[in-house]
Design brief:
- The complex is a heterodimer of chains A (523) and B (232).
- Chain A is α+β, with helices and mostly antiparallel strands and 523 residues long.
- Chain A has a domain at 232-342: Flavocytochrome C3, Chain A, domain 1, CATH 3.90.700.10.
- Helices cover 33% and strands 23% of the residues of chain A.
- Chain A has a 6-stranded antiparallel β-sheet with strand order 15-14-19-18-16-17. In chain A, strands 8-2-1-12-21 form a 5-stranded parallel β-sheet.
- In chain A, strand 10 and strand 11 form a beta hairpin.
- The model of chain A has no long low-confidence stretch (mean pLDDT 95).
- Chain B has 2 domains: 2-107, Ubiquitin-like (UB roll) (Roll); 110-227, Orthogonal Bundle (Fumarate Reductase Iron-sulfur Protein, Chain B, domain 2).
- Helices cover 34% and strands 17% of the residues of chain B.
- The chains are: A alpha+beta (523), B alpha+beta (232).
- At the A-B interface, helix 4, helix 10 and helix 12 of A face helix 1, helix 2, helix 3 and helix 5 of B.
Chain lengths: 523, 232
């Protein structure tokens, strides 16, 4: 039977699988772990759509402008127009499949989120990702029973198969039996972000090792804006990772401060009176980094949530309080919580067109692995929207004529492997060059260290990881301006001539080109 | 803090299980999940006698109690490795026993998903909710599919018709939102008729789901309306 192959079973992968099933196209849904373990469960705050249920005259046009502005005007206007115009359609579908959003009078209640001019974020307590994902899992199960979706759990991506400029299939590894399989037909990539390049340092899943991105890059898949890494302002260090304190905490009234002498200084409220603590994430993280380096301030920022009512804790943020109590032994109801910015999201990724197709025909990408909607900085509430919509668009555009009738086959060959200790070293090097505040000298040093580490890389995957890391740093070095999450102390201003995507490819050497943004058609 | 992990290891599904002691030291508080990650990141992992051993195979994803991947038995108790702090002395780590072992602490939990499919846990029409059903659905949506509820249940065994709380909880969301479905029929057969109401699942659930509450609500919806002759 002819099937599409989807790599990743989080929100983007599930959305693609369900849309394909609705079109009467069968798919293989391939993932290392079951959907319940996907990173999507960690999304807390909510999902954006200009539903205008709060009496604020919100429109898709305002959603568009906030997203463009928040993203440092580096997103493709055409992509953002589609994202914001189709957001109400996505939300309405999520309601239909039973996502238990917090509601009032039958309508989703909307929260304000960072960088938004209106209340626009629908939520389900403080576990929105988990609740949306569960509804999609149940929805996909219907099509599993009908024979449209075939699950391949405990299978991981090894590489794609290319024929000229087309992708004709994918090789996967059964992690339980160590057997490898070749599947033929179109491929939709939905494997998540680049967390695996920063082990222990991100808020995301530890099962993402970054190897898929590194391998695809080596195979000629084009990437964009790899320098754009989002540091979420409020994370706490827990055992072995960063744990997110949702932006919803500030949306519901949480306030950031630093001790300045004997007085708490609510620096965001003083510096940005309009949006205060709810400025876009790049701005908040940068301000936090600056105040802790200010000799007049203590070197720790706190999030003060003591003013939040019992009702808010109980109805809107119950999981958040429980989490902070458990990991920090601090009750946020009565005590401010020490927080630091942590790596949270990658705006950069696989370069895709309006159909979510990559530079290789019949190879699509959606969700966090693609560079599509979020420009230089993603607004809170837009990631789940982008993932669900991206999966849907990719599936809508799969060319059923490109399906292969070639049966899957078991193959022999070298099993992929990589060194965890090299991955840890590489993560430390990347973090030192690609922090919140960047400069030429630090990045050159990182590049030099990666080149030295590359000499110790023993396996093809380790070599690919080093190569990809070099592409990330080179992108950041090339962008000699400050825009969104990419802030350079040596070039602190945006430069209009660089309002373009940095496209990186590999064909034996790394190539970097600047591509103008695609203009919006239906302005 | 010095810890000795005593781990029940198994090379592959057909291998024989054996105990192995691996030392671990930490200066800061750590969960068992952190400890396993740190041990596996060592260039060479060594057992208590200093012999090199293979990395410990286990599953994890979120490290913060939201994904259920790392469910195992720690000192005989069912829990998530990311939800259990290491203690000085010996800590015993074993895989769940009601699911086939794949390797070391990894078990094949595909029975969970097969049961959900067999129970028709999916919607059959457009769903609409009010505040009450919405709260039920929010509670039910917290299920991690970790398998702890089945592991402790006196009525569940691998292959049993009874599907246990791991199917009942996701079903509760859909039962609360629609009427007269195949799911109701399957629920009566695969949950209600097999459940001995020990409620051990309620006490063990790592996500703290109020399982008893969901069971009562689901029984009311799928069972009692028939018993009272109010078949709709």
């Amino acid at each position: 039977m002819e099937r599409v192959n989807i790599i990743g079973a989080g929100l983007a992968g599930l959305s693609a699988a369900i849309t394909l099933a609705q079109r009467g196209i069968a798919c293989n849904l391939i993932s290392k772990l079951p959907s319940e373990r996907a990173q999507s469960v960690l999304a807390e705050g909510g999902i954006n759509a200009s539903l205008n249920t709060m009496g604020q005259n919100d429109t898709t046009e305002l959603h568009y402008h906030d997203t463009m502005k928040g993203g440092g005007y580096l997103s493709d206007p055409e992509a953002v127009a589609t994202l914001t115009q189709r957001a109400p359609e996505i939300l309405s579908w999520l309601e239909t499949i039973g996502v238990p959003f917090n509601v009032k009078d039958g309508q989703p209640v909307l929260r304000p989120f960072g960088g938004q001019s209106k209340k626009r974020t629908a939520y389900a307590k403080s576990s929105t990702g988990k609740m949306i994902l569960n509804a999609l899992i149940d929805e996909a199960r219907k099509y599993e029973n009908q024979g449209w979706i075939y699950r391949w759990m405990h299978h991981e991506f090894v590489c794609i198969h290319r024929k000229g400029d087309a992708c004709i299939g994918v090789r996967i590894l059964d992690t339980y039996t160590q057997k490898m399989w070749d599947f033929y037909g179109p491929v939709i990539l939905a494997y998540g972000g680049l967390n695996g390049f920063f082990p222990l340092q991100t808020t995301g899943t530890t099962s993402n090792d970054g190897n898929a991105a590194a391998t695809l890059f080596m195979q000629g898949v084009q990437f964009g804006n790899l320098e754009m890494i989002q540091y979420h302002p409020t994370t706490i260090g827990i055992c072995g990772k960063r744990c997110l304190v949702s932006e919803a905490a500030r949306a519901e009234g949480g306030r950031l401060f630093v001790w300045k002498g004997q007085e708490p200084w609510y620096f965001m409220e003083e510096k940005y009176p309009e949006f205060g603590n709810l400025m876009p994430r790049d701005v908040v993280s940068r301000e936090m980094e600056l105040v802790v380096k200010d000799p007049g301030c203590a070197n720790q920022v706190y999030l003060n949530m003591t003013g939040l009512s019992d009702e808010i804790w109980e109805k809107r943020l119950p999981d958040l309080r429980e989490e902070i109590l458990y990991y920090l032994q601090i009750d946020p109801k009565s005590e401010p919580v020490p927080v630091e910015p942590g790596i949270h999201y990658f705006m950069g990724g696989i370069d895709t067109d309006n159909h979510h197709e990559t530079n290789l025909r019949h190879l699509y990408a959606c969700g966090e692995c693609t560079c599509r909607y979020h420009g230089a900085n993603r607004l809170g509430g837009n990631s789940m929207l982008g993932a669900i919509l991206g999966g849907r668009i990719a599936a809508e555009n799969i060319d059923s004529k490109a399906m292969s009738d070639k049966k899957e086959e078991e193959v022999a060959g070298q099993l992929p492997s990589y060194s965890m200790s090299l991955a840890l070293q590489l993560g430390t090097i990347l973090r030192s060059g690609l922090g919140i505040l960047r400069n030429d000298a630090d990045m050159q040093k990182s590049l030099y260290q990666i080149e030295r580490l590359e000499q110790k890389a023993l396996t093809p995957t380790d070599k690919a990881r080093c190569l990809f890391a070099k592409a990330m740093v080179n992108s950041a070095l090339s962008r000699k301006e400050s825009r969104g999450a990419h802030y350079r102390t040596d070039y602190p201003q945006p430069d209009d001539t660089m309002q373009k995507m940095i496209v990186v490819t590999y064909d034996g050497t790394i190539h970097m080109t600047w591509r103008p943004l695609r203009q919006r058609r239906n302005a | 803090m010095k810890v000795i992990f005593e781990i029940l290891r198994q090379k592959d599904p057909n291998g024989s299980p054996y105990w192995q002691k691996i030392p671990y030291q930490t200066e800061t508080p750590a969960t068992v999940a952190t400890a396993l990650n740190e041990l596996n990141a060592q260039p060479v992992l060594k057992d208590l006698d200093g012999n090199p051993v293979d990395p410990v195979r286990w599953e994890c994803s979120c490290l913060q109690k939201k994904c259920g991947a790392c469910a195992m038995r720690i000192n005989g108790r069912l829990c998530l490795a990311c939800d259990t702090m290491v203690q000085p002395g010996t800590m015993k780590l074993e895989p769940l026993i009601k699911f086939p072992t794949v390797a070391d602490l990894i078990v094949d939990r595909s029975a969970l998903y097969e049961n959900l499919k067999a129970m028709h846990v999916y919607r059959e029409s457009d769903l609409q909710y009010d505040t009450e059903t919405n709260e039920t659905a929010q509670k039910a949506s917290r299920c991690l599919q970790c398998g702890c509820c089945l592991e402790i249940c006196p009525n569940y065994y691998g292959g049993s018709v009874f599907a246990g709380a791991a199917s009942m909880v996701p079903a509760a969301r859909l039962l609360s939102l629609q009427e007269n479905t195949d799911l109701e029929k399957a629920y009566r057969k695969r949950v209600y008729e097999g459940c001995g109401k020990s409620l051990a699942c309620h006490n063990i659930c790592p996500a703290g789901i109020p399982i008893e509450d969901l069971l009562v609500k689901s029984n009311r919806k799928a069972v009692w309306k028939f018993r009272r002759g109010k078949k709709r």
